[in-house]
Write a structure and sequence with these properties.
heterodimer, A: mainly alpha, 73% helix, globular, B: alpha/beta, Rossmann fold, 6-stranded mixed β-sheet
């Protein structure tokens, strides 16, 4: 006869988070197309942009000096984009499987659910981005890890932004059903032009620069260029990005909870369809 | 008065299943759910005694699924009060979710995972100790041993229902909420599932609330029936007493009487 462990725990349970990570892990390893897809797009990106970087470096003194600014930007963009996708796909899997009702009716708390998807986004990211960085090293001579300690600051800021966007997008799908699925795939691209991934913030019109500086990734990409071109690490940029990220994360979690409540009011947790 | 009973009478005082100790497994009062302009549940009040099997009976759109979903905390009521195992729902739902479970045709188990993987995940979510032994026990009880390593998507609908039932029983719940537990099953499998539910109730003194269209199922399993129509309680009593009141031999005939607005025996 089995026993039930204390059902009255009010704290976050690592046990339940582990259970959810295990659920996504089972799913990931059960499907080779899912695994292949994680590597395929980043590999394609690095090859395309790597050759572009090589060509521009041959014809432009600035880019020759910039030493991998384009490839570095591509890798950091992929951390941002794939981080969000890695999070949101776990959520979509529950919608596609019509499993959300089972989870919401279990002792799993929303924060544990979100934490498990964050862990999965790191796992998916590692599977996709680590081969990408190795390709950059072997094919184009760009050692991403030579960025050193600043890389940790870049990575943390980008992954926090990706989770915030992922939490917000998942909330929208939760509330509006799979009809809103395209938001998951496209929302991050709205950030792309304003985050100044491939060009400095100065390029933007003055009024748009104010908007750009409201986005944490802008600080990261600007910081990366400063590091690669001027060999200076701007810690101030990273701290500012971190503060905005903290606000963004709290806001997206609060929005998710509001949308979850709205979904419960609306009855959409029972179906999960369009 | 037509077929509809006074709900305070049914729910609070004279119902055969009202918990004499005052500690009902489910206590629902004046429950209302409005979706935009539709009143899906309209002032429902009832209590379900611990250890009983209660059936929610009604046609499509009667409010059965919405009532169960509100009890589970998956749908927020517009107004009214719900207490489950002594906890106020939804505010204290996390205090009791580990002691209850459910099965519904509106949700599925992840299709790509094997039966064993699914049960492992849910067993861990419910913090079931000695999980491997529990899964083996359920597999034996529900005839799933040969299916444990098969992906859920490769199962027949009868097999999927048995797996869903195994998930619903993984934490040995005190309270089991079932929405159409035998829908789309052949008579043999349906009978088998009913038998298992009866046994589970007896061995665990569990409380079961089930919504069903299947009159035979309700007649056979339930100590008490709550008949819903357009979101309100039309009748609430034991199957025998309800059939006697309508002067009918089967619940199916009672169901048709209620659905078509025919008066019960003795109604003014």
């Amino acid at each position: 006869m089995s026993e039930i462990a204390s059902p009255h725990q009010r704290t976050i349970s690592l046990h339940r988070i582990n259970a959810m990570v295990l659920r996504y892990w089972y799913l990931l390893v059960s499907s080779w197309p899912r695994l292949l897809e994680l590597v395929y797009w980043p590999a394609l990106q690095i090859v395309t942009w790597g050759f572009l970087q090589t060509y521009i470096a041959q014809t432009s003194g600035f880019f020759a000096k910039a030493g991998g600014a384009l490839i570095g930007a591509v890798i950091l963009w992929d951390i941002l984009f794939r981080g969000q996708l890695g999070f949101s796909i776990s959520f979509l899997e529950e919608m596609w499987a019509r499993n959300l009702g089972n989870l919401m009716m279990s002792p799993l708390r929303p924060i544990e659910f979100l934490l498990s998807m964050m862990i999965m986004s790191l796992i998916r990211l590692a599977i996709g981005v680590i081969p990408m960085t190795l390709m950059a090293l072997f094919f184009f001579g760009f050692n991403f890890y030579a960025i050193g300690l600043p890389l940790i600051a870049f990575f943390c800021n980008l992954i926090f932004t990706s989770w915030s966007v992922g939490v917000f997008a998942s909330g929208l799908v939760l509330r509006n059903g799979l009809g809103a699925e395209s938001i998951v795939w496209t929302l991050m691209f709205a950030v792309m032009p304003l985050a100044c991934i491939y060009y400095p913030v100065d390029v933007l019109p003055a009024w748009l620069q104010y908007v750009a500086w409201m986005l944490p990734p802008t600080y990261v990409f600007e910081g990366m260029r400063t590091l690669l071109i001027d060999h200076v690490f701007r810690a101030d940029l990273m701290i500012e990005a971190f503060l905005i990220n903290a606000l963004l994360f709290v806001a997206s979690f609060a929005t998710f909870m509001v949308l979850l409540r709205s979904a419960k009011r609306n009855g959409s947790l029972l179906g999960g369809g369009e | 008065m037509n077929g509809q009973m006074q709900q305070s009478e049914t729910g609070q005082g004279k119902s055969p299943a009202a918990d004499a100790s005052g500690s009902a497994a489910i206590d629902v009062a004046h429950l209302v759910k409005v979706y935009k302009t539709t009143r899906a549940v309209d002032g429902v009040t009832f209590r379900v005694a611990r250890g009983s099997i209660t059936g929610l009976l009604g046609g499509n759109g009667a409010g059965k699924t919405t009532t169960i979903a509100m009890i589970m905390g998956l749908v927020l009521p517009t107004s009214g009060r719900i207490q489950v195992l002594g906890a106020s729902i939804p505010d204290q739902s996390y205090d009791v979710l580990g002691r209850m479970n459910f099965e519904s045709p509106y949700v599925d188990m992840p299709m790509r995972l094997t039966v064993r993987q699914n049960l492992t995940v849910f067993g861990r979510l419910y913090a079931v100790k000695h999980l491997r032994e529990r899964i083996d026990q359920l597999a034996a009880d529900l005839d799933l041993r040969d299916l444990l390593d098969r992906a859920n998507r490769k199962l027949s609908s009868g097999q999927k229902t048995r797996v869903a039932l195994a998930k619903a029983l993984i934490n040995e719940p005190e309270l089991l909420l079932l929405d159409e537990p035998t829908a789309s099953l052949d008579p043999d499998t349906a009978d088998w599932v009913r038998q298992h539910l009866e046994t589970y109730r007896k061995t665990h003194n569990a409380t079961i609330l089930l919504a069903s269209h299947n009159m035979l199922e309700v007649e056979r399993l339930c100590d008490r029936i709550i008949i819903l129509k357009r979101g309100t309680i039309q009748d609430d009593d034991s199957p025998d007493r309800i059939m006697a009141r309508y002067n009918r031999d089967t619940l199916e005939e009672v169901f048709l009487d209620v659905a078509r607005g025919r008066l019960r025996e003795g109604a003014p």
